[in-house]
Amino acid sequence: MAFTSTGFILFITAAVILFYIVPLKKRWLVLLAESYLFYALASLQGLIYLTVTTLVTFGTAVWMQKIQNAGDLQTAVVTDKAEKKQLKASIKKNKKKILTAGIVFSFGILAILKYSNFVLFNFTSLFKLFSPGYKFNPIHFFVPMGISFYTFSVTSYLFDVYYNKYKARSNIFEYALYVSWFPALVQGPINRNDQLHAELFEKDHTFSLENTEFAVQRILWGFLKKLVIADRAAQVVSYIFDNYDKLPNFIILFGLLFYSIQLYADFAGGMDVALGVSELFGIHLNENFRQPYFSQSIAEFWRRWHITLGAWMKDYIFYPFSLSAGMLNLGKRLGEKSRYLGRVIPMCLGNLLVFLVVGIWHGAEWHFVLYGLFHGGIIVFSILMQPLYDRGISAFHINIKSKGWQLFRIIRTFYLVNLGCLLDDVTDLHQSWGMTKQLFSFTNWNLIRNFSFQGFGAKTIFVVLLFSAVWFVVSIRKEQGADIRKSIASRPLVLRWTLYMVLILSIPFFQSSHMAGFMYAQF
Amino acid sequence: MEQLLEILKDTKPDVDFTAEKKLIDNNVLDSFDIVQLVMKLNEAFDIEIGAENIIPENFNSAESLWAMIQKLQG
Fold first, then answer.
1. pTM over 0.95
2. 3-state SS of chain B: helix, strand, coil percent to 5?
């Protein structure tokens, strides 16, 4: 059920009414039933997968907790420091075996359903060298909705219980609600159990008009981003990307700019709807964006873009890898020759690993792998060049706090992010290479002379730029610390409702005639 | 504690670690700073800070870092 469909709006309306008419203590059960119904309406196969995943990961965590509890009882009576240390190491080792089984199960299913065709295709490509007539026939797997998002959510829970950050949940239905909470099921955010559990079970969920008004504001804002900005920008992008070899280079650059707008509006719009719907029930989910295009470096961009994925990568890949015994030893060995390299090399390797995974997460294609490594490579390059950069700043007397320098860094980062799109929204590496060549080669005068806006129309460009400008102003205000929703809610009733009506009417009036599904819903 | 403050200053010279109490929540320390800091702390205090210890409660201030070091020293 797409977030922008009439069916979804009807589902939400009924779900909210039912939620608030049921006694307070039983409301979470309504949410669980609604979440499972939402998933069942999408597909029954997916529902089976969701249930099995929930049962297995719940059991895995309980098992780890039992080992921890038994170990804690033993440790409590031991006074010898060395013995205590040995006992703790043994508990960790036993828990690690269970964790590994749980992780292999969760990621194993994800890998089989999403990546086996990619592996088989590459394997058979090698086979083709010896048998040219061989044709690869992909296996058609059923891929459950939002599988990447909830696989990451459940594995974060397993890691946290393993790390003993909090205890395993003892109520399977409460845990099932964490896994299946429907607004976050389609395209995230990637939740953490302790945070969402607190929102679901420790907060007062009595009806609040102010809360509902804020939630509806956010949903409408999300619809506007998706239906007006993203879907209209998509028309321009698809025309330019499909005909890149017939277009002048500046139009390709324009296409990349529009793709950046489309991608951000699509994903952030989806997040606004997800977070807004969740807020209708008084449940606040983690933000996934913080004005990412105002970032001054690629590293900062990934702290502002898809925040919950970045946080997952940092906590469960970057830190464990960079601080592993192997990396610490490598750091020490390198440190004997160069203190600087000893400190930065483990970080650089950790970064490359994270961005390799980020690339693969985006899809089972080589261009996605290179997309991840493009971003990771820039970050590694900037870490290694830091001493030279600092010397340059000092030699040229650059005031790094000046507005001009910060603006230069923002534009530079945005340009790099746009270049990265050449590895993202393409069908294969051939198209990516073709577009890159076209972008950086001298444009034939005939291409410029014959160019027309026939493919997408000036109205579409105008609408995208107009609403992007509104969004840009809102983003600047948010960057300055303004709470836009509170600010609107505090205005006089007439002004407030005029604004809401403009927003509501803008959507059907300006929305694209080519409605597309959310880009991240297929992840 | 003085040794810890010196290490913190060496990692991020422009931060007042005696006053700042939300090093993680306010994004004062990023993941690169944390890895560098952990490497230095492991060496200086002969401890093993694992990924499980990297939580805001342990890294938000010099005091919380000091408490974690003492706990890990057992």
1. no
2. 60, 0, 40
Which two three-digit tokens encode residue A198?
């607190």
Assigned domain for A431 exists: no
Q: Answer with the one of A163, A184, A207 that is the final residue of a domain.
A: A207
**Distance of alpha carbon A97 from alpha carbon A249, whole angstroms:** 54
Tokens of A298: 């690629």
A471 contacts A200 by C-beta, under 8 angstroms: no
Q: Residue A272: inside a domain, yes or no?
A: yes
Predicted confidence (pLDDT) per residue in A47-78, tens digit: 999 999 999 999 999 999 999 999 999 998 98
Domain of residue B44: give its range.
Answer: 2-10+20-73
More confidently predicted of A455 and B70: B70
The span from the CA of A198 to the CA of A169, in Å, is 12
Structure tokens at B5: 């403050």
Check which CATH number belongs to the domain holding B56 and give it: 1.10.1200.10
> Considering the domain boundaries, does residue B15 fall inside one?
no
The span from the CA of A74 to the CA of B52, in Å, is: 21
DSSP structure class, residue A301 = H
Residues A42 and A152 in one domain: yes
CA-wise closest residue to A431 among A254, A241, A246: A241
A307 and A271 co-located in one domain: no
Q: Is B29 part of a structural domain of the chain?
A: yes
Mean pLDDT of A311-324: 94
Residues of B in contact with A346 (CB under 8 A): 35, 39
**B10–chain A Cβ distance below 8 A for any pair:** no
Q: Is the pLDDT of residue A455 over 70?
A: no
Domain count, chain A: 3
- Which CA distances in Å does A163 have to A66, A91, A130, A158, A197? 14, 11, 49, 9, 18
The interface pTM score, or ipTM, of the predicted complex is 0.90
- Domain assignment present for A289: no
A4 phi and psi angles, rounded to 5 deg: -95, 5
**A167 and A303 share one domain:** no
Q: Which of A309, A319, A479 to mutate: most B Cβ within 10 Å?
A: A319
- Which residues lie below 8 Å from residue A300, measured CB to CB, with a gap of 6+? A413
pLDDT for A453? 64
pLDDT for the residue numbered A518 = 76
Q: Which among A215, A200, A361 has a CA at the least distance from the CA of A280?
A: A215
pLDDT score of A523: 67
For residue A502, the enclosing domain spans 209-284+443-523
Q: Are the beta carbons of A344 and A352 closer than 8 angstroms? A: no
Q: With CB atoms and an 8 Å threshold, state whether B35 touches A164.
A: no
Alpha helices in A243-314 (DSSP H): 249-280, 298-304, 307-313
Number of structural domains found in chain B: 1
E strands, A12-111, are: none
Within-domain flag for B65? yes
Measured in whole angstroms, the distance separating CA A346 from the mean position of its chain's CA atoms is 25
Contacts of A328 in chain B (CB under 8 A): 39, 42
Q: How far apart are CA A426 and CA A256, in angstroms?
A: 11
Nearest chain B residue to A310 by CA distance is B31
Which tokens hold the place of A131? 């048998």
Helices (H), A129-171: 147-162
Contacts of residue A152, Cβ cutoff 8 Å, sequence gap at least 6 = A190, A309, A312
